Amino acid sequence: MRTNNNVMQIVLILVLLLINSSLALADDLKPPIILVTQEETKVSLTWSPVPNASGYQLFYAPFPFTGPESIKSVDMGSTTSGSIELWDGAAFIVAVKAHNDANSSDFSNIELFILSKAPLLDPDAPPVTGDWYKPPVAITWQWQLKGEVNTNHPAKLYDIDLFNSSPSLINTLKASGKKVICYFSAGSFEDSREDKDKFKAAELGNILVDKPDERWLDIRSHNVAEIMISRLNLALLKGCDGVEPDNMDAYANNSGFDINARDQLAFNKFIANEAHKRGLSVGLKNDMEQTPDLINYFDFSVNEQCHEFHECNMLTGFIANGKPVLNAEYQQSYLDNPVERQALCDSSNGAQFSTLILSKDLDDSRRFSCF
Fold first, then answer.
1. Are residues 181 and 296 in the same domain?
2. From which residue to which does the signal peptide run (predicted)?
3. Which domain holds residue 61?
């Protein structure tokens, strides 16, 4: 089941409902902002009060979306919150509108939640099965996380930033026949991200080497897991075909937490399974040492500098299982020295890796593709 299409359908239906509404929009009646939190099978919703509003209407539909007739609404009166106990596996998309006697606001942000009583972090969790995008070996790709995204590269797959990429950009790439992977950091805190205030101080560890604006996260935390679910939901709502969760190897670094290998397996399997539940492809970034334990959970590998550091042999299992290795190299000599560059590309192509030579800033300032 392709869940991305379901989400886009419901967004379009909600927009059409708004356009066709007999209530005129008032400039001073702003849409509320809704926040969804969940704990096992209990879900709580709060939304911002809207000046001049006398009440609120909650709209909801089961997920996956089955058609416009599945959209229901509840008059919430003047309250700006509510909670309900649902069932294991319950999944809904929700939004809120404010209204008064004369007018109605636009819809709030649209949120998706999927409830589960199962342990979130289980190192022995089996892989989820289903239908989602699975990129082929030796696929052409482009990786750009900074600056205005150059949409003109002849690549079948684009890897771009989840937070900084608009649905319009993602739709443009997909309309040209490209698949879109959305990057976010699953294992580190970034002060620039819009959801930064959801993290607790106790969940923030040591600063990452060479990344002074990032700190390791305590990946054992239930709250961190919930934030990552919200990020996966955002990827789904934006129309991403898959995700690249970064910094998936806290156990092998000086994170500031007592995180062991099984903790890391539990977190990485959780990320992969939750992505797949949403119909999203997911790549394994870093954590090459645990590849044998994780290869059945991830659809591709994203790797930096395995040629430079002579580590590519640790990734050949992906190729053997029909899954691509998306490799980026940054060494300047690969660009300056044609002989060295050719040797790199010969080695990469022989292994069926998808290798790019890029700027380490991933800003499209330099790019050479070996394939």
1. yes
2. 1-26
3. 3-114
